[in-house]
Amino acid sequence: MPPFLLRLIKSEVRKIFFKRFTFVVCVGCSTFNSEFVQKKVVILGGGESGAGAAILAQSKGFSVFLSDKGQIHQKYIDVLVAENIPYEQGQHTEDSILDADLVVKSPGIPDTVPLIVKLREKGVEVISEIEFASRYTQAKLIAITGSNGKTTTTLLTYHILKTAGLNVGLAGNIGDSFALQVAENRFDYYVLEISSFQLDNIVSFHPNISVILNITPDHLDRYGYDFQNYIDSKFNIIRNQTSEDHLIYFEESEVIQMELAKRKPAVSLSGISLEITLQQGAYLSNGVLTADIQDRFFEIPFDELPIKGPHNAINALAAISVAKLLDIENDKIVAGLKSFTNAPHRLEEVEVIGGVTYINDSKATNVDSVFYALGSFDKPVILIAGGVDKGNDYSQIEELVRNKVKGLVVLSKDADKLQSYFSSIVPQIYITQDVQDAVNKGKEWGLVGDIVLLSPACASFDLFKNYEDRGEKFKAAVRNLVNP
Fold it and tell me: Which of 24, 45, 182, 271 gives 281 a disulfide partner, CB atoms 3.0 to 4.6 angstroms apart?
């Protein structure tokens, strides 16, 4: 029987049961089981996480209503219709939302919007999908966050665990909805990529292993341009962890070190470092990735991995640390590391044309990402950057740009900030709003051995749908140089 049909039958049975037994009294019981009362769950947002949360809520017997102020993608409408879940799009009907017992909201909806404020004033609990799903699984949770590198680290960790034969799911900010997988599958482990937006609305979310790769200024427009607010959001990942749980963190992050000193969390700590040898943790020394965690030792030359650059050394050390905490055999870790293929738009080599290498790093939506990207190359770089600035501080990459960038192409509707900051640092600057024009300028300036690097430091929404769209259009423009 198809899973959706089975869930639908179960849901209808629950509805009949709840309607008939709402006022059940348990004689001799000291508590009343709220599961016997059908509560209303409202889902705000009809994307991947929203549709998944709606399915999970219905599978648990809740009355469900989904509302999206925008237009819902047809594939999610098809799911909602098949599951007999009521929904609306193009509006939020407040009368149908404010009577909710629980609201699961999309990460993209800020807590400051009037509807969320009204819900909280009424005492309605508003949570994220990861919080909601975590309440219905006993699986071990590995949660990974950071301003940069979390997607690669999540994918690599998942790949190592899966290669090792663990029954593991991939979810969070990547892959299928966490809630959907909890509703349909029975994984023993989940590797979750977690954004600050998702961490803003947790209550009891409790990872067994958490990873904080780095915290640098990002999304400050969402956090009142107060960096500490963003830091606090990231540190929510350890909010419910205990001494039996583990936090893997980057030793060279001053922000993380300061927060740990201030918070003194009970969680067991395991560092990762590119600079020092750790007695308990993982580190890079003489080109070798080494882990020594709970008397479990592992090492592998970094140049044997398919991913390159110092930022990927950090990502690999984090993934190795997770694997060692789970006591995965070394040969299986090696197999996972060597067979890994990274997601697109992350220092992705597109073509080598006339001796010039074109690199797509469209996922680099903040300055810290560009720092690591530039640090990955020892050849002259023509940098294509720009987009929607989120409060960027370009001083972080000033020295790298001065030493490595021979030309800056600003691909943006608003070039003023980048142009004014780098006008005395970069020998030549070109401004455009057309990606093909940007690539053409890279070809014009490029010499044999040069790198044309799309690493924008900004969000993509001024000229593109998202960073994937920007990356795909960049790759198409590069390939047009070969086949115009």
Answer: 271
